């Protein structure tokens, strides 16, 4: 995917969006006074600052020539994040070994390095290594890794 | 004499077998990740944070610090042999180091890098031992208003010295500060931005953000890039420098140590800026500036000494003020907090064993690194031939394990994925993730000191200019802001970073 929009413009939108979001969600937090600030005072000030900066970036992108974002490779983004999410969903009910295999396989698919035999060997090797190091060696509590 | 006793205490802590082992593990691991491009100390330290939770505080800090300066050493090996900086701070080393290696002087370049780093590390350790207690003494007089102004100064300084657009860097700091407000407000017990999720009440864990943005986010953008084919110098011989070589590199090394040591104190300054400035300085001082870029030993010695000195003096504001000057120092503060310790001037009196043990371990660590890096350089050369396709699945797996084991909470893994996506987006938009991390760590402290200062002064903002310490930091901040808009500095700053991308 090739994005021909200016990176300043998009960053400006992002900052404004985040600032606005924080103001909307935090709209019912008490503001308080300067001497006794409520929970909402500080986030409000920061959010306004963020929106102002976003505005500066948007204006700047319109008055002067700025860099385009350029090519974005969506495959690693989607597949790699998918793998991490899968790890999160699998780890508690299905255990670490399965979740770990999923991450390694997803990583190789994301990087266009997937070859069934090599990826499988690497995945199994890494999972065994991690169980030995983290679960037995360092005593971390990884689900379904204690067989005896 | 007190200094002597303190150092003695430090060595008695650092020399216990357990701390020696963890220190060694730290520098070994640091060297490995420094040698391997694509995995930095920030990601590694955040992955290991949950692991260090089980260790006693000194062992944990000693190991994490070892990773940090070990990575500086390891990064230069890759820079010299592959012309690929293993660490961002060794970008400069690659310029002349690789040229030396191509001329058959790989051994000399490696030895120069290691010895100059060792000289700088030794001197910087002494500086920390002398300066840190004095600074901590001063810091005990700091009130909330002073701390607020100090942190404001720290954030502005970090912005100036960061790469790329200043507006974007400030924006990322603000996003980080906003993320830091997530959780139950300590003063009023109001839940902020928790979306009703109970585990958000304590805020997002800092390691989740660090690992998401640095570990996962960076891997995504690395995979999107084109494959770098590596042509590296495999032959390393004549490791030991001759007397004539030592005479050539000792002065640049000392100058680099001095300059790097000063720049390391500044928030956001750190090793990268230190090595660039020293390179520029040496080129200016040299009688034969034409040799720079073609394998000048001074171009390796100065920057290597500078980045190591800066890496170590960066500990001074962290240990004495609780002020992180870089993402790695922010992680160190995170590690201290996980141990139930609050970084700041009182740390040295409360835990002298930790404070002086860490300082003593830095010198021991530097000594271990010279041994690891010179005789064992053959092993690192082999490590360089491990292809990246074997590495990144392992990095991802370690990240997942690291995030999960902070609280044994699968929700943290999902959050890390979200921050990974955000980190990738930020990188595509040319926004640096490090300022966000700094804002996230400093945000809660800034809010707390702001509220306390104004509570004491009954809402009178003059409190910030009435106190001399606070006023001086505000004046410094103001001066920095002027520098920020001054065209001359902007040009040089741009040039320094443009050279880095070549």
Automatic annotation (TrEMBL), chain A:
Record InterPro entries: DUF1468
Q: Does the keyword ATP-binding apply?
A: no
The UniProt keyword set, sorted, is: Membrane, Transmembrane, Transmembrane helix
Residues in DUF1468 domain copies: 10-143
Q: Which domain of life does the protein's organism represent?
A: Bacteria
Residues spanning the membrane = 38-59, 71-90, 121-139
Recorded hits in Pfam families, A to Z, give:
TctB
| Name assigned to this protein | Tripartite tricarboxylate transporter TctB family protein
UniProtKB/TrEMBL annotation, chain B:
Per UniProt, which keywords does this protein have? Membrane, Transmembrane, Transmembrane helix
User: Quick check: keyword Transmembrane helix in the entry?
Assistant: yes
List membrane-spanning regions: 20-40, 47-71, 107-135, 147-179, 321-342, 354-378, 469-489
**Domain DUF112, which positions?**
20-438
* InterPro entries, per the entry: DUF112_TM
Asked whether the UniProt record includes GTP-binding among its keywords, one would answer no
> Which protein, by its recorded name, is this?
Tripartite tricarboxylate transporter permease
